[in-house]
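Service request form, structural biology core

Requester: graduate student, group of Dr. S.
Request type: structure prediction, single chain
Budget code: on file
Notes: please return the result as structure tokens.

Sequence provided:
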Amino acid sequence: MANIIDGKKISAEIKEELKEQVAQLKLAGIEGTLAVIQVGDDPASSVYVRNKKKACEYIGIHSKSFELPEETSQKELLDLIEDLNEDALVHGILVQLPVPAHIDEKTVINAISPKKDVDGFHPESVGALTIGQPGFVSCTPAGIIELLRRSKVKMDGANCVVVGRSNIVGKPMALLMLRENATVTVTHSHTRGLKEICRNADILIVAVGKREFITGDYIKPGAVVIDVGIHRDENNKLSGDVKYDEAKQAASLITPVPGGVGPMTIAMLMHNCVEAMAR
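Core staff response, request fulfilled:
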């Protein structure tokens, strides 16, 4: 039976550490500000934005909120980003995704200065990660590394399987695990023999976007299982990409949904904001 990796507890520890760092930076005369832009009023996005503002307040940095109407043009959004790029008092810029269909997501991501790209999505940030240069790292994969590190999971030499190859989780996750000297296999919708590959993993990281896709028979006894997925059923019950009740019978450590990876994403966003201040 698996032990639980408590993301709420670990994220709270990180936020306490960041609070202390922010206090030290303030003594040096550095005040931090995160600009958060939301286009439209998608309910899930509104919840995320609210949580980000709360986290800023908690660690002691300012948040500037821009809640733009759904019909905001791409040019208006890009003009705002350009203004924030040039504002020396703003350290981080975040555009809450998804944006409405008439706005090109890639163009928006590329418009944010890499120096303020606290989401870690800009091609320059991704390129820096690929070649091992300093830069902002996508928050969810960075959070998973912290979960593993603080749970004393040995990544060096471990056989790691990542299920999913998205730009936001799967690809940067693979690069970060390589940086920790794991041997990494990235699987996706065209992978043959997925179950056998997963059963070979010491660390299995699942970010496939399909509810309870990975069942207990995909998991090697004693493996560490990280579930990135989050799904809400008709009764408002949350579950992940992994069938939790089955997986916990085989795994040695597992993240629950909710309360596993989710809280870490915002903690690492705050980490990136503090890093931007320090730079």
